[in-house]
Structures are given as C-alpha cells and as structure tokens.
Amino acid sequence: MRIAMLAPINWPLPPAGYGPWELVASNLTEALVALGHEVTLFAAGGTRTTANLVTTTPHALATWPEAERNRPREFDPESGLLEGPPDARVLEQLHIATCMERAATGEFDVVHSHLHVHALVFGRLVDCPIVTTLHGSAWNRAAHPILRAYRHMPFVSLSNAERTFLPELNYVATVHNGIRLDAFPISSDKEDFLLFAGRLAPEKGPDTAIEVARRAGRRLVIAGMVEPQHEGFFEERIKPHLDNGQVEFVGLLSQPDLVPYLQKAAAVLFLGRWQEPFGLSAVEAQACGTPLIATRLGALPEIIIDGQTGFVVDSVDEAVEAAKQLHTIHPAACRANVESRFSDDAMARGYQDVYAAVTSG
C-alpha cells in the first residue's frame, strides 16, 4: 500500500528526547516499511528513516538555530521588511500543503496525519482518505469546533478511554501506541527507588508522586521536562523537596539515558489528575520488566493488567499500599504484556487494517 505519513515538525524523527507524537510516527513508519508497504514520510529536517523522506522544513521547530529562533521582531529600513523569527504556523501550513499537493495527484492510497486537527480541512479536497490519529487532541475543548465540522472523517483513538472526550467522531479503530522492543531490554535486577517519568505538569501528578514516595519510605527519581507555563508549579510544588535527599530530579533525558532508570526502578508512578489518552512511558516501563502504580483514569487501566503488571489505585493511600506489594509482580509478566499488545509491529498491523478498511470504502 502507498502511505503518506504526515508527521509533526516540532522534533526530528526519531526524537532524541521529548517528542511522543514524533516517536509514535517514527516507530509506525519503520514498522510499516518492514511489513512491505511503500511509505513516504513528510517530516522536518534532521529526520532519519528507511521510508521515502520528504523534508518540508530545514529544521524542526524545537531545534531551529537559536539565533534565528530568538531573533527580535523589528523593521529593517534597508529592505523595508519586518524581520523576525520563523513563523511556526507558516511552516506547518507549508508542511501540510506539500503532502496534500502530492496526495491530490493520486500518488498515495491513504494519508495518515499525526498533526492534531490541522490537516482535517484538506479531507474534502483530496480523493484518498485522510486518517487522523487524535493523540489526545480532543481533550482540548478549543479544538472541538473543527473536529465536529469534520467528524465524518476517519479517526483513530489511542485508547477506548480517549473516545470519551468527543464520542460523536467517526472512530474507525482503537490502535494502541507501540514501541521498539529492542530499545527497552527487560531487567529483573531492581533497586528500591520509585520513578516518575514525564512532563512536570500539574495534571501529571509529580507532586502526588512525591507524597506517595515519602509515605512509602522510598526514594523518588523524577525525570522529565519543565515547560515554561509550568515553571511556577515546579518552583512551588517540586523544587522544595529536592533538598531532602529523598527526591532526585535528573531533568529531561534522552530515551537511551532514561532506559536504565526504567530498568532499575521498583515501580513507575502514574498518579495524574486527568484522563490521559495513552501513556507511552507506561508501556516502556513494562517492557523493561518494571511494574506501574497508576490512578484509575484515562487509558491506564487498559495498559495495566491489575495485580499482574502493576496496580490501579483510586487514592494516595492505595498507592502507598501498592508500593508494599511490588514484590508480587514478575518482570516477565510486564514484558509479556508489551510484547503481545504494544509492540511497533502490533501497532503497524493495527493501522494496516485501518488503511485497508478506509480505502475499501
């Protein structure tokens, strides 16, 4: 099948650190190529792939040269032009248009968009179907008008829980995100610390993870990025705990640097306050043979086999109690759950079925 993969352009594929949408698009692209499909990947500069690559921007938005990215907006009297940094909206529109112009020629059987809602408006302008993976975008109510306007287009949810954000969309399948198993080797040699890995945002619950670790008498390692809008939350709720020796913040790690923490942790904590549509690091942890302690929200009950690969809890008290039961979870069971349900091959075969369904009418 001839597939156009429309990836985000915030980070090159595969991303070196943060970039979950880019990582999924990269894993899917490589797995589809391995299955024998003809994949054309539309992505930012710096991308590496075995597919046919179309580079639509010279750099990814997040890795754009700093001098250009921070260039002040000012009038140039010599040229008469307003100078300034690159415009992300302009670059993304050019990125999408490059893909859609080629799709309009009949070059592809299907276009697969990982671009939030921004490619939807082309759905009635090209003959081939455009499949959209939501990646949680329906969580943002501001996106609902455009999603509803194009609700009859084919959408793929990452979990059944994700559909509750906007049930009236035309969901053609739920396809779980998949990972490259070889990138996350299993380990049975665990240490005593707990791990939080993810964005340090209020809805992710890193402050709750600190409370659980304190009450459970275990050390906590925190790995992740602090976004500008959450710097106040970090300063108030996280940073004061970093001086007591029980909580260690290691910052944003690349995937290879994060893997040893995933392998050695006694458990990874997912104690968020929102209906998370998936949880890629929850899969990565289990692949390393590490159990999860997670709240009963969003997709996490779909990812965890309660009592076998971790514990699904409804309160801090239950999370603290679960930390006492981690010895009952076998690393091999965690790994088997990922091998059977969350590999890149399983994801690619799921999307392969989606493409076949939407192209058959």
Under CATH at level 1, the class of the largest domain stands as Alpha Beta
**Helix and strand element order:** EHEEHEEHEEHEEEHEHEHEHEHEHHH
Q: How much helical structure, as a percent, in the residues?
A: 25-40%
Number of helices: 12
* Whole-angstrom Rg: 21 Å
Between the first and last Cα atoms, what is the distance in angstroms?
Answer: 15 Å
Strand arrangement, largest sheet? 3-2-1-6-7-8-9
- Total of domains: 2
The proportion of residues in beta strands is: 15-25%
Largest sheet: 7 strands, parallel
Mean pLDDT, as a whole number? 94
Poorly predicted parts: none
Instruction: Report the principal-axis shape.
Output: globular
For this structure, what is the CATH homologous superfamily of the largest domain?
Glycogen Phosphorylase B
Could you please describe the fold and organization of this structure?
The protein folds into two domains: 2-74 and 82-178 and 343-359, 3-Layer(aba) Sandwich (Rossmann fold); 181-341, 3-Layer(aba) Sandwich (Rossmann fold). It is 32% helix and 18% strand. It has twelve helices and 15 strands. The strands form three sheets. The protein has a seven-stranded parallel beta sheet, sandwiched between helices. Strands 12-11-10-13-14-15 form a six-stranded parallel beta sheet, sandwiched between helices. Helix 6 (231-238) links the parallel strand 11 and strand 12. Helix 5 (206-216) crosses helix 10. The longest helix is centred in the first third of the chain and has 16 residues, at 88-103. 46% of the residues are buried.
